[in-house]
Amino acid sequence: MSTLRQRFVKDLRWLMPGLGVKRWLLVILIGSMLIGLGFAVLVLDVYRTAPETWWLPVLSYLSLRFLERPLRAVIFGGIGIVFILLGTYKLNRALLKPYLTPGKPVLDTVSAYRKKERGPRIVVIGGGTGLSALLRGLKLHSTNLTAIVTVADDGGSSGDLRRNMGVLPPGDIRNCLTALSNDEALLTQIFQYRFGEGAGLNGHNLGNLFITALADITGSFEKAVAESGRVLAVQGSVLPATLHDVKLVADKAGKENQPEIRITGESKIPLVQGRINRVWLEPDNPLAFPPAVQAILNADLIIIGPGSLFTSILPNLLVPDLAEAIKASRATKFYICNVATQTGETDGFSTADHIRTIEKHLNQHIFDLVICNQKQDLNLPEGVDWVRIDENLNEEYSTYASDLIDPISPWRHDSGRLAQVIMDLFYERTGPLNNRETV
What we know:
The protein is of the alpha/beta class.
């Protein structure tokens, strides 16, 4: 008996708010009621006008005429509702079966989908492994995700395809697409598969070749990215910051009494020792990809970082239209500070150094909240240090510090933990606790 009760209570979860089920059940009930009413009128007419035969008493017995009418209505109505619910449930299971995750109840699948469908419109700006890691966590909370990715990459497989095929670098976009995919476990292995040097494909990633081939087939890089997203069934969208063939250029401080060193190429900048004084794009002032600007202006939450400060984040902000859209947007703006420094790029940088570098290029104080990692007691690779939290950072910025690191790779964020913190803080600041300034 307790098992039946548990099953009944479990099935009642289909009537929870937000699933989009009750309204259609009501439509089905009304339609069934009208059909039943029409059939009842027909039966009643036959019953009243038909000559006395043997089956009339049987019909009278089956219609429960020996009971009071209200009781009969409850009995027949209850049986009808049970049949409607059972039929609807079985039909939905049959239709949804090809799309369900094995071992996961259909109710949980529908509930999770509806919850993420109503999630906030989030725009994440950056590049590299940091951006894809963040997306991997955020897709569990919202399907309204947009990743805006730099196209200044010129190293590895992406750089070769850029030079030889004239296509925009697909590497960071590939990482974000696989991170947003519904079947990431398998697709990551396929899209991240790198051919050996002896295979005649020069060590290219399969995903890079796939996007490049689609660009040739569709005639444009942006269409190739969109079609790749459909093939991978991504939850959200991935957009290039610009469609212009841009290069990242940096001036680095030389050694004692030596002039500045100018480096052209995103992949070359971290290889040269010295503090970066400034970075810019060539050609200057490239036009932004219009859907990227629109996504920023429509966003509820804009997240900048994590990722390489000078070679992944700033190339997006150096596109003037994107920078202006960020400043004009009324969305809540979070900055996710890196866990560790990057050799040749942010050596010795603190949290405040990261923030001021970004705001220097935007010429404006824009962040509503800065999220930092405070667990800094694990071992890091040689040449890498923790990004320290400045003692007086709370006096200048609203900040939140917590344990956000991946225990296996402590120089990186834990995707799930970081995403949960972001969503909790976003709902707190946009909900009844939105007067809180510091955390």
